[in-house]
Amino acid sequence: MTNFTGSNFIAGEPSQLGTATFTSVNPRTKQAGSVQFHNATTEEIHAAVVAAADAYEQSRNFSAIKLASFLEAVAAEINALGDELLQTADMETGLGLPRLTGERGRTTGQLQGFAKLLLEGTYVEAIIDTALPDRQPAPRPDIRRMRFPIGPVAVFSASNFPFAFAVAGGDTASAWAAGNPVIVKGHPGHPATSELFAQAINRAIVASGFPAGWFSLLQGESVEVGQQLIQHPLLQAVGFTGSLRGGRAIFDTAAQRPNPIPVYAEMGSVNPVVILPNALATRAETLAEGLVTSATMGSGQFCTNPGLVFLLDSADSQTFIHTYRDKMAARPTGVLLNEQIESGLEHAVASTQSRPAVHTLTGGYVVDGDAFAYANTVLQTTGSDFIADPALQTEHFGPVTLFVTCASSEELTNALRALHGNLTATIHAESTDLGTAQPYLDVLREKVGRVLWNGFPTGVEVVHAQMHGGPYPATTAPATTSVGYTAIQRFMRPVAFQNTPDALLPDALKNTNPLDIWRIVNEVKTKDAVS
Ligand code: NAP
Fold this sequence. Notes:
Layout: E1 8-10, E2 13-15, E3 21-22, E4 25-26, E5 31-32, E6 37-38, H1 42-59, H2 64-80, H3 82-93, H4 97-120, E7 127-129, E8 143-149, E9 153-156, H5 170-177, E10 182-185, H6 191-208, E11 215-218, H7 223-230, E12 237-241, H8 244-255, E13 263-266, E14 273-275, H9 277-296, E15 308-312, H10 315-330, H11 339-353, E16 359-362, E17 377-382, H12 383-388, E18 400-406, H13 409-417, E19 424-428, H14 434-445, E20 450-453, E21 492-498, E22 519-521, E23 524-526
Parallel strand pairs: 7-22, 9-10, 9-12, 10-11, 12-13, 14-15, 14-19, 15-18, 17-18, 19-20
Antiparallel strand pairs: 1-2, 3-6, 4-5, 7-8, 8-21, 16-17, 22-23
Helix pairs in contact: 2-4, 2-6, 3-4, 3-6, 4-5, 9-10, 13-14
NADP nicotinamide-adenine-dinucleotide phosphate binds next to helix 7 and helix 8.
C-alpha cells in the first residue's frame, strides 16, 4: 500500500513548500483522513507552468506514434494501481466499487482511444489547396493548413468523476494527445486518489522518455490555487469540469488576463425530458422506473441527471407523477460526495421550494446520520410558472426532479423555448408521434449538445460522434465537446502555410504524404501524393 506524501507533484518531484494543508473526508462517516495534503504555493504554481513551457519546447514536435505510446503507458500504469486505486477513491467519494471499476475502464479506454486516433492521423485536419499560377485575374498561391498543439494546458478536476473527469481524465487525455503538457488542479474532495494518479503518470513519463514538466499536479482546497494558475502568462488554455459558479469565475479570470486564453468549461445542466401523451399511455410504469433509476444514479450527482421533466397536464400525467414520487420515496437514499455538495444541494432545493408556484411532493431535506445524504426529492410546478421564473432552471446537484405540467402544447413549446443551454434533452414518444415531436425537437436542438430519443441522459458514450457540451450555462464553449475524440480539437490550433517550400513543411503537409494520412487536396479527400 502507498504511503501518501500529501505533496504536490511538480515536474515529477514531490513538493510541499506551503504550510496550509487539508485532508480528505470519508463521506460515509464524515471522518477526516490522517494525511495532510499541502495547498500549492505561488512558487509551486509558477514552477509547474514554467516546467510545462520547457517541456512544450520538446513535445510540440513529438510524433503521433510517441504520443500514442505514452497514452498507452499511462493506461497500463493506471491499471497497475489495482484495487488500491478503487478503494482509495471509494473512501474519498463514497461512489462504490462497481461504479468506480466502470469509471476506471472508461478512463483507460479513452486514453487508448486517443492513442488510436493519433495513429490514424486524420485528426491534424490537413487541407491542401495547390497553387493556380494561371488563374485570372490573379494567380492563387499554394496554401496548406493543419492543426498543431497549443501549449501548456491547465485542467481542473471535478468531484463527481474522480477518474474520468480528473487527473488523467478526458480533458488531460485530449490535451496530451494534442501534444501539450498538462498542469492539473486536483479536486480537494479526492486528493489521495489524485496522488495515486500522479505517481502512475510520472512512472509512464519516465518509461516513455518524456520531459518531466509534461505533467504536474497541484493540490489545493482554496480557489486561490486555481486562480493563480489561470493567470500564469505561460498558460495557453484551460479545461474545466465542475460547477457553474467555478467555471464562470475561471472563465472571467482568463478573459481578464492581458492575453486572454480559451476556457473550455463544462458545467452544470438540468437536462430537460419531454414525455408525450402516447408514451405515458403505453409504458408509464417502465418509464417511471427508468427515469427514477437515471435520476438517482450516483445519488443524482451527474451533470447529465434528468432534473426537469415536462408533461402535458392530464389525468395520465398526474398519475405518472404520483407513481414517480412513490418510486423515488421508496428508493434508498445514496451518499453524497462531500459536505459542500450536501449544503449546496440543501440551499438550491430550499431556494426552489421558496418560489411561490413550487410544490414539494416528497423529500426536500438533508438526511440525518453518519453519511452526507439528501432525501430523494420530487417537486412540481406549471408551465406558465416555469416560463415566468428563470430561477426554476437552477441545477439541483443530487437526486431531485422538478415536474413541469403544461396546459397545452403551445405552453409546452414556450416552456422549452424559455430553457437555458443544457448538455442534453430527451423526448419520450411513440413511433406514431414523429409529427408531434418534430417541433419540440426543433426547439430543443437549439438548446443542447445531445438530443436523446426514448432514452435516459445519464451515461455518456466515449465515441467519435459524441457531443458533450452545449450553449451557456452548460459550457463556455458550445462549439466543442469534452467527451469523445473530437475533444482533441480544443487544444490544437490551425496554422496555414503559404507558398512554403516542401522541405520546410511538416510531414502531414508534404507532397509525398509520408504519414499516409487522409487529407483534403483541392477539395477531394485522398491519401494520394500531391503532384
Ligand atoms: P466545483 O466546486 O466547481 O469544483 C471544480 C474545481 O474547480 C475544483 O478543483 C475547485 O477547486 C475549482 N474551483 C471552484 N471554484 C473556483 C474558483 N472560483 N476559482 C478557481 N477554481 C475554482 O465543482 P464540483 O463540486 O467538482 O462538481 C459539481 C459540478 O460539476 C456540478 O454542477 C456538475 O453538474 C458539474 N459537472 C459537470 C460535468 C460536465 O461534463 N459538464 C461533469 C461533471 C460534473 P477548489 O475547491 O479548491 O476551489
